[in-house]
Amino acid sequence: MDPTPDLLFDGPEDATVTLALAHGAGAAMDSPFMNGIVARLAALGHRVARFEFPYMAARRVDPRRRPPDRQPVLLATWRAVVAELGGPDRVVMGGKSMGGRMASLVAAEDGARGLVCLGYPFHPPGDAESTRVAHLADLRIPALIVQGTRDPFGTTKQIVSYRLPASIALEWIADGDHDLKPRKASGRTQSDGLDQAAAAVDNFLRNRVR
Predict the structure, then answer these.
(1) What pLDDT score does 161 carry?
(2) Which of 3, 21, 41, 88 could hold 111 in an S-S bridge, CB 3.0 to 4.6 Å?
(3) For residue 125, what are the CA distances in angstroms to 43, 80, 133, 135, 165?
(4) Are 18 and 85 in contact (CB under 8 A)?
(5) Distance of CA 186 to the CA centre of its chain
(6) Quick check: 81 and 3 in contact, CB under 8 A?
(7) Contact call for residues 68 and 25 (beta carbons, < 8 A)
(8) Strands 168-173 vs 114-118: parallel, antiparallel or unpaired
């Protein structure tokens, strides 16, 4: 099977860099979260390319719920996308949750213009000892992680103990969960979180990506 997926583009065609975003484990590339963040980034003048891993693309033909592909397939799909977009020097890689984690694994090995992770899964919920951070120490490119302070995949208290490299910037979304959604009592909305996330990514792409 050809691992190169179809690409969905948003934003101006003449943007100097393309941000490629992969979806999370359980929701497609056009989920409300993905649509919301991409619409904001496109409005800020950024070119965004979305794609789906094979298991998620298969749901559009047969809606039966499938588990994510094995990691080698996920990584091969990411590499095919990067090649399609012109290679590591032309692409900022990133994604939601699992999609961002897979992007970080490829970027740590192959390089990229930059890395953007939206809700990074630092560990499985309820299992803070099973961390997924070892490869992050190998990152030599500018990176941004946008994380809700209540994210069950990694809270503020846990993440500050990981000693992440200086190349990784963190943007905290107050009271946000894994989808950057706050509790009603916080006085904030998920739209506020997406606005803040988009502003952080915009600043990252304009000021840290060369």
Answers:
(1) 87
(2) 88
(3) 33, 30, 15, 20, 23
(4) yes
(5) 25
(6) no
(7) yes
(8) unpaired
Task: Compute the distance between CA of residue 103 and CA of residue 137 in angstroms, rounded to an integer.
Answer: 14
Unique residue bearing structure tokens 């060369």: 210
Residue for token digits 């065609």? Answer: 13
What strands lie across the sheet with 168-173, from one edge to the other?
A: 8-10, 47-51, 18-22, 91-96, 114-118, 143-148, 168-173
- Paired tokens of 182: 């706050």
For residue 140, give both structure tokens. 């030599």
Please give the DSSP secondary-structure letter assigned to residue 129. T
Task: Give ∠ CA 191-207-84 in degrees, rounded to 5.
Answer: 80
Q: How far apart are CA 143 and CA 134, in angstroms?
A: 15
Closest CA to 131 of 96, 167, 165, 155: 155
pTM of the full structure: 0.95
> What tens digit of pLDDT does each residue of 52-94 get?
999 999 999 988 888 999 999 999 999 999 999 999 999 999 9
**CB-facing half-sphere around the CA of 183: CA atoms within 13 A:** 6
Structural contact between residues 209 and 142, judged by C-beta atoms closer than 8 angstroms: yes
- CB–CB of 46/11 below 8 Å? yes
Tell the CATH superfamily of the 8-207 domain: Alpha/Beta hydrolase fold, catalytic domain (3.40.50.1820)
- pLDDT of 15 > 70? The answer is yes
Per-domain residue ranges of the chain: 8-207
Is residue 126 classed as helix, strand or coil in its secondary structure?
Answer: coil
Chain-centroid distance, C-alpha 8: 16
